[in-house]
Design a protein that fits this description.
Elements: E1 3-5, H1 7-20, E2 24-29, H2 32-35, E3 38-39, E4 50-51, H3 56-63, H4 69-82, H5 88-101, H6 112-129, H7 140-149, E5 158-161, H8 167-174, E6 179-180, E7 183-184, E8 190-191, H9 193-197, E9 206-210, E10 218-220, E11 223-225, H10 241-245, H11 251-263, E12 267-272, H12 279-291, E13 296-300, H13 309-317, E14 321-324, E15 328-331, E16 334-338, H14 348-352, E17 355-357, E18 364-366, H15 371-379, E19 416-417
Parallel strand pairs: 1-16, 2-5, 2-12, 5-9, 6-9, 12-13, 13-14
Antiparallel strand pairs: 1-19, 3-4, 7-8, 10-11, 14-15, 15-16, 17-18
Helix pairs in contact: 4-5, 5-6, 7-15, 11-12
Length: 418
């Protein structure tokens, strides 16, 4: 027996929620977001250009290029030991482990000080690669900020991002939209965990939480400060130390904020560009969703379900996590292919915003796993009256989105069984 899900009913509910400003909404944004934005050599938007910030494979090439001969010898040995799965995260993890384990003893030509210098050089190259500036033209980030600031809200929108770049900061500032990122001050803004834990700011202030640190952060006198420019990369940690560092400030406060958000009744977290391969964040999601059946997470994934195994695995055991992939979904713990129903009245243009071919010769797929399409969908949520636009003969009141305040143990998401 094969199960099908109708994307129209769930997107109708989601657009309604996005347009109203009453629900507590958060965004979990991963590395796939800036990859979706293509730019040319001049930094202007170009569909045929390169990703604004490269993916892991390209970042690995960039971060390990231009090193000394001795450093390259050590890197070659690390790559050989790690095998085909070696990337910048696993390589830097090994570099940091060797830095901690060695004293004056040399391995592959480097001692502890040599591996420390190698790690610093790699992080500087990472910082340069992720330090791209946001295009001045209207783009996915600016459209997402337009949605955040486009309605009167009962609760502030909270953005949790694993990215080190400054794209969200630039987008908020270009739009002159106020946001709080946990830092306070003017000369050398310092991290204030007490303010992170509280909800004292007006709802019009968005909240931006950099879960794994950021370029521009630095340590001064044992305190984390920001505003040190794109060259400051000492708090960029794409390696195993992420987990250890989350036990320290500012990381402990930021991870506790994510948990607190998910444990708040009637909260909805939208994940975009996130691979679900970050063990620590997934542990927080798993624990929080188990503790609070009244929260919901919607994961928008770019690839087909079969290639989104980490997200699907978690969704199979946590029915309040739904995975919306290109070819199908896991909703309420039930996996099925997408099958749009009869086209409702005045719904054609709206459907094309989430269901259409990516390329002209391809079949239609669910589009919102692409950050650009997701941001446009959010920005247009208030552009159309969506009353009575669910699938033909179907009610929108029973989906996990519409009833995030109820346990999603048996949602009306199994649209067709054949």
């Amino acid at each position: 027996m094969e199960t099908f899900h109708n994307p129209d009913r769930f997107m109708s509910d989601l657009r309604q929620v996005l347009s109203q400003g009453r629900k507590r909404i958060g965004l979990l944004v991963g590395a796939g977001a800036p990859m979706a934005i293509r730019v040319n050599d001049k930094g202007m938007l170009d569909p045929k250009g390169s990703p604004l910030i490269p993916g892991v494979e390209k970042l690995t090439q960039i971060a390990t290029a231009g090193l000394s001969d001795t450093q390259n010898t050590a890197l070659d040995a690390i790559r050989a030991d790690l095998g085909d799965g070696a990337n910048i995260e696993s390589i830097l993890s090994r570099v940091r482990l060797l830095q901690q384990a060695l004293g004056t003893t040399k391995v592959s030509g480097l001692d502890a000080a040599g591996f420390k210098k190698l790690g610093q050089d790699i992080c500087e190259k990472i910082g340069a690669a992720v330090g791209a500036q946001l295009p001045k033209e209207r783009n996915a980030y600016s459209e997402l900020i337009a949605w955040i600031s486009g309605t009167v809200r009962t609760h502030a929108v909270e953005v949790f991002t694993t990215n080190y770049d400054l794209l969200f900061e630039e987008a908020f500032e270009q739009a002159r939209n106020p946001y709080f990122d946990g830092f306070s001050g003017g000369s050398a803004p310092f991290f204030d965990p007490v303010s992170v834990a509280s909800d004292d700011l007006p709802p019009r202030w968005a909240k931006l939480w950099k879960m794994h640190g950021s370029i521009g952060w630095a340590l001064e006198g044992g305190t984390v400060v920001r505003g040190k420019g794109r060259a400051a990369t000492e708090l960029v940690y794409p390696d195993h130390l992420k987990y250890d560092l989350t036990q320290k400030q500012p990381y402990s406060a930021l991870f506790e904020r994510l948990k607190s958000f998910l444990l708040t009744p009637d909260s909805l977290l939208l994940a975009i560009g996130f691979s679900f391969r970050d063990a620590h964040i997934c542990a927080v999601l798993d624990e929080s969703l188990a503790m609070n059946a009244n929260s919901a997470v919607l994961a928008f994934q770019y690839q087909p379900l079969e290639k989104e195994a980490p997200a699907v695995t978690l969704a199979n055991i946590r029915p309040n996590l739904s995975v919306y992939a290109a070819d199908g979904a896991v909703i309420g713990g039930v996996q099925g292919k997408w099958a749009p129903g009869e086209l409702p009245k005045n719904w054609g243009n709206i459907r094309r915003s989430f269901w259409a071919p990516r390329q002209s010769a391809e079949s239609a797929v669910f589009l919102l796993g692409d950050f650009v399409a997701f941001a446009r969908f959010c920005a247009l949520a208030q552009a159309t009256d969506l009353a009575n636009t669910a699938g033909a003969g179907e009610s929108v009141s029973s989906s996990p989105i519409a009833v995030a305040t109820e346990e999603v143990s048996n949602p009306a998401s199994q649209d067709v069984a054949a």
